[in-house]
TrEMBL record:
<keyword id="KW-1015">Disulfide bond</keyword>
<protein>
    <submittedName>
        <fullName>Alpha-lytic protease prodomain-containing protein</fullName>
    </submittedName>
</protein>
<keyword id="KW-0732">Signal</keyword>
<dbReference type="InterPro" id="IPR009003">
    <property type="entry name" value="Peptidase_S1_PA"/>
</dbReference>
<keyword id="KW-0720">Serine protease</keyword>
<dbReference type="GO" id="GO:0006508">
    <property type="term" value="P:proteolysis"/>
</dbReference>
<dbReference type="GO" id="GO:0008233">
    <property type="term" value="F:peptidase activity"/>
</dbReference>
<dbReference type="Pfam" id="PF02983">
    <property type="entry name" value="Pro_Al_protease"/>
</dbReference>
<keyword id="KW-0865">Zymogen</keyword>
<feature type="signal peptide">
    <location>
        <begin position="1"/>
        <end position="24"/>
    </location>
</feature>
<dbReference type="InterPro" id="IPR035070">
    <property type="entry name" value="Streptogrisin_prodomain"/>
</dbReference>
<comment type="similarity">
    <text>Belongs to the peptidase S1 family.</text>
</comment>
<keyword id="KW-0378">Hydrolase</keyword>
<feature type="domain" description="Peptidase S1A alpha-lytic prodomain">
    <location>
        <begin position="124"/>
        <end position="181"/>
    </location>
</feature>
<keyword id="KW-0645">Protease</keyword>
<dbReference type="InterPro" id="IPR001316">
    <property type="entry name" value="Pept_S1A_streptogrisin"/>
</dbReference>
<dbReference type="InterPro" id="IPR004236">
    <property type="entry name" value="Pept_S1_alpha_lytic"/>
</dbReference>
Amino acid sequence: MRRTRTHALVAATAAATLAGGVWAAAVANASPVPASDTEVTDKYAPGLLRAMERDLGLEAAEAVELMEFQESAGSRTEDVAAKLKDSYAGAWIDGARSATVAVTDAADVATVEKAGLEAVVVDHTIAELSSWKLSLDDTLAGLEGVPSFYVDVESNQVVVDVHAGARAEAVKAVREAGVPAGAVAYRTSTEQPTTLMNVIGGNAYYIGSGSRCSVGFSATGGFVTAGHCGTRGATTSQPSGTFTVSSFPGNDYAYVSTGSDDTPLGLVNNYSGGTVGVTGHSVAPVGTSVCRSGSTTGWHCGTISALGASVTYSQGTVSGLIRTNVCAEPGDSGGSLLAGTVAQGMTSGGSGNCSSGGTTYFQPVGEALSAAGVSLITSGGGTTPPPTTTCSGYESTFSGTASAGSAYGEPSASGFSAASGTFRGCLDGPSGADFDLYLQKYSGGTWTTVASGTTSAPDEKVSYSGTSGTYRWVVDAYSGSGSYTGAYDTP
């Protein structure tokens, strides 16, 4: 089986509950894939393992082996460095294979090897190298053609990156700094570093002399936010940009064009150490659960109570807003409103606060994108519209939005009761994604997968002949994010 990852259901309950005479256990550990990976996923975040698979080509077990080795090696090198004192010349790790400590005194090799580490004898201590590099901070800083310089412990030298034609000036500066020629290596480079900033929904940005608002959503070349945050031509910092479109009152939207050093990402800050991937935009109906991100109060959720609302501020009336019972406070203005992973709007204003609650209005995102003539940037790099379902002719249906690496219980995490017979399920996921469909049965206090559709396509169909009991469908976003629809028949 190609599926080797364990996903916890997003809709997991917090504790066991009695339903229909059967214990519907907590599903936080429910998995649509083999239980052999449970310990791996429990110890390391699935997102971390997926990133290591993507970027380093490592399977989950290999990634865990690497991280455990590096954790152990790091601890041992710290201990050895403290014992070596003046002889210590740095340390480095080679994958999951070895860890090396450099020393300047051959008598200290035994101390290193006793800790299970490899030892190498070199000429310069880490203290000397660091001191020389510090001297170069004064002479090389700002020197044209020298983009960077650093201590390289493996070569036991200070490495100076230089552009073609700039070496002579760099060598002269190093000599003036009193750094021994043998302790410096020059590397020809074409790099020209620039400051970088990721533009992420919910993060703060600053206007003019220091007023603060929040990014709504990344869009082509910049981001959309609230119009009252800045007039056309106003400049921003962190990220740097310019309001090229702004409408307020009447509307409350704006578009900020950012510089080439800033990277707009299809993400929203959830202020819990992570982000939510944006999969598209829509107009969600009244009653939809939504969450808001803002730089003052972080991440808060509630429901949509009205669409097309008008609200009068001291500056004038704004119409066509989304009314919610989500709280917000000054500085959250412009921030992101999401229904699951689907963009809804940007924070406009309201009443109350996040201590006592309140009413908050949001400018629909679609109107802002249209006015600016830009496209929403999603976590997949483009706009992902909801799929057109091909799951027709079934008794029951379900739908939702899924983030890559997450799994969702349908039609609920606690499942449904069914008689003996044939179960049929169908899933229609977003184009370009790899969504899987599992049928699980509750038995003996755990959920067990009894049938699955795990092709590399976004759409799956499952058929299973089973006995009576409690079942649930599980939608697993193996890769990609977006909206899905599904349907099923029960005996």
